[in-house]
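Reopening this one. Same input as before:
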Amino acid sequence: MAQMKPPGGSPESNPVLRGMSPSTTPALVLGILSIMLGGCPLVGIAMGIVLGFIGLAHANKAQRDLDAHPALDGAGMVVAGRACSIIGILLGLLQAVLIFGYITAMWLFGVQVPTLN
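Same output, byte for byte:
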């Protein structure tokens, strides 16, 4: 079976047929996942923070790719991925601080949880 070429020639000769950096989509997906998991209690907090930092690394790599190859698209997705990753990290850290503060306050003030008897 013969391979079909896109109309208009190669991506180098046609600016409409440009590609994206391979790290653009993972940056956005990991940023969104970090927001979703950053608000979940316990395990989700750690996963949200970790995925947020991995998303930031992908966003930085995609930005370096975009700077090195101006013909690549996806600058908006890189910005969105970076913003979502930062928001996810901050949500995870905020929830971790609140949970730690709640547990510390319970321990310091000796509040006992009522039991069902």
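So the earlier flakiness isn't reproducible anymore. For the record, The chain is about 65% helix and 0% strand.
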